[in-house]
From TrEMBL:
UniProt keyword annotation of Transport present: yes
Membrane-related topology note: Peripheral membrane protein
Family matches, as SMART domains: AAA
Coiled-coil spans in chain: none
Organism: Bradyrhizobium ottawaense
Family as reported in the entry's similarity comment: Belongs to the ABC transporter superfamily.
Protein name: ABC-type polar amino acid transport system ATPase subunit
Taxonomic lineage from the root: Bacteria, Pseudomonadati, Pseudomonadota, Alphaproteobacteria, Hyphomicrobiales
Organism superkingdom: Bacteria
The entry's keywords: ATP-binding, Cell membrane, Membrane, Nucleotide-binding, Transport
Function according to Swiss-Prot or TrEMBL: Involved in beta-(1-->2)glucan export. Transmembrane domains (TMD) form a pore in the inner membrane and the ATP-binding domain (NBD) is responsible for energy generation.
Amino acid sequence: MTISAGSPIIVSVNGLVKSFGAHRVLNGVSFDVRRGEVVVVLGPSGSGKSTMLRCVNFLETFEDGTITVNGAPVGYQSDSAGRRRMLDEKVVAKNREHVGMVFQSFNLFPHRTVLQNVMMGPVSVQHRDRTEARKHALELLEKVGLTDKADQYPARLSGGQQQRVAIARALAMRPAVMLFDEATSALDPELVGEVLRVMRELANEGMTMIVVTHEMGFAREVADRVIFMDGGVIMEHGAPHDIMANPQTERFRSFLGMDR
Ligand code: ADP
Ligand code: MG
């Protein structure tokens, strides 16, 4: 999908710094994601990809930098003197509603049916009308190809099916952006394709997405932009056909297996 430079910025990360104790895990990460864009984040294990996504969803606090999602600050706001203050939990919870996240582990509620899993957030967190939430949940289950599993319990589903429910559940909150953190890494190889297919369809429908993945084919074919992270910084950033074909740094070359 072609995204015009005039599309509104949905996620803006500026100078993000995050440490765990003395270990600086993110060292000044900045990027914007425009509406409808798919940004794929690549990088070796430990490079800070998950921490970065968790900061965008405010599952982590951070020491420096700013993040806004849909124009609203995530985590911190500046007072009139320019000092940064942590946002209170209510504001954070509100802002987090703009962000849908899908993890490597599916984290479905085991004692709720598939349909109940998808309806739960809209009904109990967003206080939406139950009938409307049910209708929307059924539409989302159709989108991910699981209409026939609506009344099943998660344990009866394959990993690929559970992950598709997790995607439907995140979409049910009508997020402005979807974050995927290695959503297919825990799946048996034969189940990876069905989840990638749903992600690709979402991308084609214009969903704004930040996708951490090791699926190079997905990065090449679906990403509008690719970010390569290493050691808590963005080493390379550009259109996939540019930077994946012509990596500028030794580390990205090596990551892509091009140094042999
Ligand atoms: P990636 O997702 O790219 O593999 P992570 O963001 O998970 O990288 O981790 C980046 C670094 O931060 C790693 O060195 C990891 O050990 C460390 N780290 C991540 N989470 C924590 C935590 N909760 N406490 C301490 N260190 C952490
Ligand atoms: Mg990770």
